[in-house]
């Protein structure tokens, strides 16, 4: 896996375009969503490009767990405690619009089920 020169998330990871980064690790970057669906809406993306969560899991299964760990650290830093939702969309039919693996961290309001 490497960067995709046409991927907006790869460009945010590389610092080529601005993003409100809230945390960075060796293999993940967390930044605020431009169109938040909750008071706290942060995207956690792997540094290396992969099209979706299934591709990331196939290439590096442990990386998915590391993304969740980063999300938990961000949730703690944002004061969410244990009340937040994590979402991984895979494929256009699920709502994925940027084809770079990304984990949505949503919190700061009550969440309903089913989500939609």
Overall pLDDT level: 95
Helix content: 25-40%
CATH architecture: 2-Layer Sandwich
CATH class categorisation? Alpha Beta
CATH superfamily heading: HIT-like
Structural class assignment: alpha+beta
**Which radius of gyration do the C-alpha atoms yield?**
13 Å
* Fraction of residues in β-strands: 15-25%
SSE string, helices as H and strands as E: HEEEHHEE
According to DSSP, the number of beta strands is: 5
Shape: globular
Low-confidence stretches: none
Number of domains: 1
CATH topology: HIT family, subunit A
State the end-to-end distance.
32 Å
Major sheet: order of its strands? 1-2-3-5-4
Tally the helices: what do you get?
3
Q: How many strands, which pairing sense, and closed or not: the largest β-sheet?
A: 5 strands, antiparallel
Gist of the model:
The chain has helices spanning 8-14, 53-59, 61-77; strands at 21-24, 28-32, 40-46, 84-88, 103-107. With 116 residues, it is of the alpha+beta class. It has one domain: HIT family, subunit A (2-Layer Sandwich).
Layout of helices and strands, plus pairs?
Layout: H1 8-14, E1 21-24, E2 28-32, E3 40-46, H2 53-59, H3 61-77, E4 84-88, E5 103-107
Antiparallel strand pairs: 1-2, 2-3, 3-5, 4-5
Helix pairs in contact: 2-3
What brief labels describe this structure?
HIT family, subunit A, 3 helices, HIT-like_sf, Histidine triad nucleotide-binding protein, HIT-like, Histidine_triad_HIT
